[in-house]
Design goal:
It is a single chain. This protein has one domain: SH3 type barrels. It has a six-stranded antiparallel sheet. The protein has two helices and six strands, in the order ββαβββαβ. The protein has helices at residues 22-30, 62-65, and strands at 2-3, 12-18, 38-44, 48-53, 56-61, 68-72.
């Protein structure tokens, strides 16, 4: 598995694992980010990211993105 922040613009992946505190997991769940979700990378500026999940667009900072492990599709 790779870290979400290492993916390039245009890549697709499945969220495999979230290595975060309970509070951060709750925040990510509130954004709709959970294990098994399919995502696409719309932008990765190595500081902030924009991902797509279905019709939703979600912006993540580098800290949160580095806690999420994904499997490339």
């Amino acid at each position: 598995m790779k870290i979400l922040s290492s993916l390039e613009t245009g890549q697709q992946a499945l969220i495999g694992q979230i290595n975060a505190t309970h509070e951060k997991k709750i925040k990510l769940l509130g954004l709709g980010i959970n294990t098994g979700a399919s995502i696409s990378i719309l932008r990765n500026r190595r500081g902030d990211m924009v991902i797509a999940m279905g019709n939703a667009r979600i912006s993540l900072g580098k800290t949160l993105a580095s806690l999420i492990k994904v499997r490339e599709l």
